[in-house]
Amino acid sequence: MAEPWPSTARCRSGEVLARDYNRCLYEAISVSEKVMGAALANAVAVIEARADLLPSQRNRWRVLLDEAQIRFGMYRNFDCQSVAPFEGPRGIGNFEQRALCLIANNERRAEDLRRRYGEVPPPAAPAPLVAVENIGTRPATWLTAVAPPLD
To answer: Residue 101, CB half-sphere, CA atoms under 13 Å: how many?
Structure first.
């Protein structure tokens, strides 16, 4: 039977004590979640840097990306909690399969976000300042907040 989840390069089963292997898997989960969080933060920054979109469009895109991330988390958690344990050996395999599933899914999601959004573009150069000459008052300009009453 093929391995359903690739073993992590950092954690090698059978080369260390079980408790050290568990600790390594736990730390690898934490690192993969931080990497995925950083990729998501970068994606949000890329969205915010899009000057060609209206603020309402950027906000809508960001809200939808947040919703997609929540749904990804729900899928990942259900799959790794409920399905993955049956795909590996019994015993320590339950935690191991859950951990390997979480790590693999987090890494795939982070890579997907990096591929789709890239890096935040550098800020555009500010427009050059243009000297404005004093054009004085104009006949149609009101100096009060309310138009003068008509007689």
So the answer is: 22
Tally of domains in the chain: 1
CATH number of 75's domain: 1.20.1270.180
Q: What is the pTM of this model?
A: 0.73
Mean pLDDT confidence for 31-53:
95
Q: What percent of the chain has a predicted confidence (pLDDT) above 90? A: 52
Q: Is residue 27 part of a domain?
A: yes
Which pLDDT score, from 0 to 100, does residue 146 have?
Answer: 66
Polymer length in residues for the chain: 151
Closest C-alpha to 44, from 65, 21, 71: 65
Considering only CA atoms, which of 52, 30, 44 is closest in space to residue 116? 44
b/e sequence 94-125, b meaning 16+ C-beta within 10 Å? ebbbbbbbbbbbbbebbeebbeebeeeeeeee
- Phi/psi of residue 2, nearest 5 degrees: -75, 155
- Range with lowest mean pLDDT among 22-31, 35-44, 53-62, 131-140: 131-140
Amino acid at 62: R
Residue 70 belongs to domain spanning: 18-117
| Average pLDDT estimate for 10-18 | 78
